[in-house]
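To assess whether ligand presence alters the predicted conformation, the chain was also submitted together with magnesium ion. Input:
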Amino acid sequence: METKQEIQKSMMQAVTTVKETNPMAGSITNTVTINFVANAQLAVGGSAAMVYLPDEAAFLAEAGGATYINVGTIFPIYSETLPSVAKILHEKQKPWVLDPVAVGIGSLRTSLLQQFKPFKPAIIRGNASEIIALAGLWELDGGATESKVRGVDSTDEVFAAQHAAIALANWTGGAVAVSGETDLITDGTQVAISKGGSHFMEKITGAGCSLGGVAAVYATATTPFIAALTATAVYNLAGKRAGQLVDGPGSFQQQFLDELYKATAEEIANNPFEMQEVLV
Ligand SMILES: Nc1ncnc2c1ncn2[C@@H]1O[C@H](COP(=O)(O)OP(=O)(O)O)[C@@H](O)[C@H]1O
Ligand SMILES: Cc1ncsc1CCOP(=O)(O)O
Ligand SMILES: [Mg+2]
């Protein structure tokens, strides 16, 4: 296992590379938070492009350094777009981030999420209930088929999803990030616990979605685990700072983007986190 210092060095490198190179990470993401996802990707130094159609998604998958797929709002065309783009990403070994928003609701969403299993996303990002439900859908350890997903919000605590997160990471060979009041990131062999954020993050829509989009930006520049940890760290740092400066969700959203933009590589790497080894 790498030392914490080595991990922090990799996080700083990822942040710096992104700020210097403005990498493009294309997205197929929900219509609720699409604008916030793009703004967050730009704030950390990336470049955003959002599409819905199969040929356009295929183009972005090849042109971008990574791709973000979020199933929050589903359209019929996604039965064509999503499996085909996931297959391309897998075959070309391009990192992609999956946010299984509201897994369990509706037949097309369920079918699409099932079809993703062989295409192994580099990063799976979701709240605890979504991670447990996805592991259940993919018939992995720690998953539950009786899903407690009610909608887009979590009804489970982050640590309840640790087993499922490790099983998913072992399946994909990538990383899994479980978000909540504290965040858990794993690559199946190590677990990082990242701290910070603000209760206002539960009072705006798109904190989770945009975290996934930002993870895709960092995935253009580093390993899935470091990308997921770095994205989570900048969210926890920016969320904490913004939360201290505002008194409501509207101004929080604005201040949060400013803090994402202002956070330096060193500050992001120094945001509090703990490392644990996964014992087998
Ligand atoms: N109560 C909280 N306190 C601090 N940070 C939070 C809290 N709830 C969520 N966050 C942060 O908000 C972001 C999105 O997480 P979450 O709300 O769990 O995702 P989702 O929107 O997908 O349910 C993460 O960066 C997480 O750390
Ligand atoms: C409210 C809502 N409904 C469908 S997608 C979506 C956005 C969910 O955003 P997040 O998971 O980041 O809270
Ligand atoms: Mg979400």
